[in-house]
UniProtKB/TrEMBL annotation:
Catalytic site: D137
Function: Responsible for synthesis of pseudouridine from uracil.
Annotated catalysed reactions: a uridine in RNA = a pseudouridine in RNA
Protein name according to UniProt: Pseudouridine synthase
Length: 300
């Protein structure tokens, strides 16, 4: 059963006898943090009455969890044109343009995607805060998922580790790939005193990228990449290390590509994931941005 601000569960006969906390954690896979927060606020009810977490559930009980929680965030709303690829009561997916920071930092207090999202929420009468499920580098374009409540953020973060959650990118790389498809399994490490740059090093975290060539060009390849892990700069580090650096990547490519493109030619073009409330698989795609299309034409 569904309701905009509530999760509703009818207790089945084979579920009775469990404590409410155990049922929500085990059967409905809610996080301990969400359960505790909702219980403290009195947002968990059984048969329309506030319930304690040690309540023993019975067959045909109606359990409800109110996921609407008053929250604030120190981000100023800013009006901007957002390219919304998908939105409902629980999530919003935005196609981020290149050159935009996702969330405010010391160096970027305004003009971020989060500033635009806060404005968007307020214009629609929603008191959501920005709960990023995925992030992109400033100069990487493409799809970013944001949970609009604590439940959807929890569910998406949990499901990111599952097989039904897929993030795919398109990159334009230097050189012609010898193998048109394969897997890059190389650990990524962040050394001290190297700023934001990452390297391949056995001390690093396990990192896996699947790739396949979509199109061979005169001066490179167009490559599809799907992440099995999500490390910072993963695709950029992996491709550079195996000899196919991304066009325009000033951090991991030694070539000066400024005559072709002014940022790394990397776009998060496709998402596939289960909807946090219904479990139905959503598939969202977006076209390549103009600068990458022009790059491909230039080096074809």
């Amino acid at each position: 059963m569904e309701h905009k601000n509530k999760l509703l569960f009818n207790i089945k006969e084979d579920e009775q006898g469990l404590k409410l906390r155990e049922y929500l954690r085990r059967n409905q896979r809610l996080s301990g943090r969400l359960i505790k927060s909702a219980a403290l606020d009195g947002r968990i009810e059984v048969n329309n009455k506030r319930a304690k977490l040690n309540y023993v559930i019975k067959s045909k009980d109606l359990v409800s969890v109110d996921i609407c929680k008053k929250e604030t965030q120190n981000i100023d709303p800013e009006k901007m044109d957002l390219d919304v690829a998908y939105e409902d009561d629980d999530i919003i997916v935005v196609n981020k343009r290149p050159g935009m920071v996702v969330h405010p930092t010391k160096c970027y207090q305004s003009g971020t995607l989060a500033n635009g999202l806060i404005y968007h929420f307020r214009q629609n009468g929603e008191q959501c805060i920005v709960r990023l499920v995925s992030r992109l580098d400033m100069d990487t374009s493409g799809l970013v998922i944001v949970g609009k409540n604590q439940f959807s953020h929890m569910a998406l973060a949990r499901d990111m580790k599952g097989e039904d959650f897929e993030k795919s990118y398109i990159a334009v790389v230097h050189n012609t790939m010898i193998d048109t498809k394969g897997v890059i399994d190389l650990p990524i490490y962040k050394p001290e005193r190297m700023g934001i740059k990452r390297i391949i090093d056995e001390r690093g975290q396990k990192s896996i990228t699947h790739y396949s060539v979509l199109k061979s060009l005169r001066l490179g390849d167009v490559v599809k990449l799907t992440l099995e892990t999500g490390r910072t700069h993963q695709i950029r580090v992996h491709l550079s290390n195996i000899g196919y650096p991304i066009y325009g990547d000033t951090l991991y490519c030694e070539e000066d590509d400024s005559k072709y493109i002014t940022r790394q030619a990397l776009h998060a073009y496709r998402l596939r994931f289960p909807h946090p409330r219904t479990g139905n698989i959503l598939e969202i795609e977006t076209e390549l941005p103009k600068d990458m299309q022009e790059l491909i034409e230039e080096i074809s």
